[in-house]
Amino acid sequence: MPAADHRLTTLEMAQFVTDGYLRFDGLIPYDLNRRLRKELTQLARRKAGMESTFEAALPQTGTPLSECYTDGDAIREFLDLPSVAGIIKSLVGTDPVFDHDWVHYLRGNTQHEQHLHVDAVIDTIDPTFDIQLFYFPHDVEAGAGGTRFVPGSHLRHVRAEGVGRYQHIVGDQRFEGPAGTLMAFHHGLWHAGQKNHSDRDRIMYKLRLNPSEPQVRLWNTDDFDEVHNDYRDHTFAHPRRDSVAEILRRTQSWHGEDGRYEQMQHARLWRYLTGDNNYDVDYYLTRLEARAEMLSADNA
Amino acid sequence: MIRQQILYLWLGGGALDTGVVAWAFHDGSNGEGPSLPVEEPPYRSGVAAMRDGWFLLQSPRSVAPRPGEEHYTNYLNHEFIFERRIEVTGDGSLQ
């Protein structure tokens, strides 16, 4: 559950680092879902160049989020919900940059599905990240076009379409869930639109946001000192069972023999998010850095 | 006429008897040959696929990481490609 001020907790942030997404079932209230279904349908028509009653100004890429849809109705209310604003603030800051949005309107009985892909080019290895919000304003049953995604895929350096050959990955998921569910994806998470075998049209609103400030300790850190471990939290020595490392050492079965490299990436991302350059999970980075330091001292 | 079925298995390790972590199936027989389940991995390992009649076409070689990239991950490393040849009665060209 989000902290009292609606920002994420330290352990929720650790879960985001490990899995590449967070999911909040039924977060948006019933009445707002109902109004968003109508408004997003009209926004989809407007973006497709069709006749539409959506008359609010469409935000331009690069606009601060606070200035987007100010003359809109339900979308602005959605963005201003304390629960939604708290998630956004925790991940990309108080007033992130609007990258783009899109209404993925999937008609009932659609037989087309996308290949697995990433919404990015190959990114640099710096740890900064965008988020993509995936919002479903109505119930989505199994097989009704819920987005497919692969937990733990977000830190892999791949081309956007280079993962399209993977028809099935052990542990991949197809979204199904109640109306008002919001998911926050790291921009690197592999995903794909699916067939809609139901008779009902499926609406999903996707919003990409860029950080406008360093993403360091933006969440509610009330629990930080209690759970943030040091490098001695080592699974082969003295592991804690209540620390951030316990979450960051979790890997996916599809990682196979690459699991420990994923753990190293988790630790690197956590260093960025916390500003603690000595942070580690299971001693992998610290061990290498100690050797480099020793050699450096020897050569001085 | 003979048509190919192709099965990609991505394994958790470099040995053919390690577990399947991902898979893809392409059916050149246009449904005339046997199909595979889609909800669960069709086989537990590469060896299990061979025992069911799949012939290994290609296995990956181990590649040392480039300096500076030793600890990064990208695509699935252990891609094994299998084929099964199917006798078909139609021309196999219909999609």
What would you say about this model in short?
The complex is a heterodimer of chains A (300) and B (95). Chain A has helices at residues 10-19, 30-47, 74-80, 82-92, 224-227, 244-248, 259-274, 284-299, and strands spanning 21-24, 97-106, 131-136, 148-149, 168-169, 173-174, 181-186, 191-192, 202-210.
* Class based on secondary structure composition and strand pairing of chain A: alpha+beta
Spans where pLDDT lies below 50 across 5 or more residues of chain A: none
| Percent strand of chain B | 25-35%
The spatial strand order of the largest sheet of chain B comes to 2-1-4-3
Cross-sheet strand order for the largest sheet of chain A: 1-7-3-9-2
Distance between the termini of chain A: 51 Å
Structural class of chain B: mainly beta
Largest sheet properties of chain A: 5 strands, antiparallel
Work out the number of β strands of chain A: 9
Overall shape of chain B: it is elongated
- In total, the number of strands of chain B is 4
| Helix-strand topology string of chain A | HEHHHEEEEEEEEHHHH
The Cα radius of gyration of chain B reads 16 Å
How are the SSEs ordered, and which strands pair?
The complex is a heterodimer of chains A (300) and B (95).
Chain A: H1 10-19, E1 21-24, H2 30-47, H3 74-80, H4 82-92, E2 97-106, E3 131-136, E4 148-149, E5 168-169, E6 173-174, E7 181-186, E8 191-192, E9 202-210, H5 224-227, H6 244-248, H7 259-274, H8 284-299
Antiparallel strand pairs in A: 1-7, 2-9, 3-7, 3-9, 4-6, 4-8
Helix pairs in contact in A: 2-3
Chain B: E1 2-11, E2 20-27, H1 46-51, E3 55-58, E4 78-87
Antiparallel strand pairs in B: 1-2, 1-4, 3-4
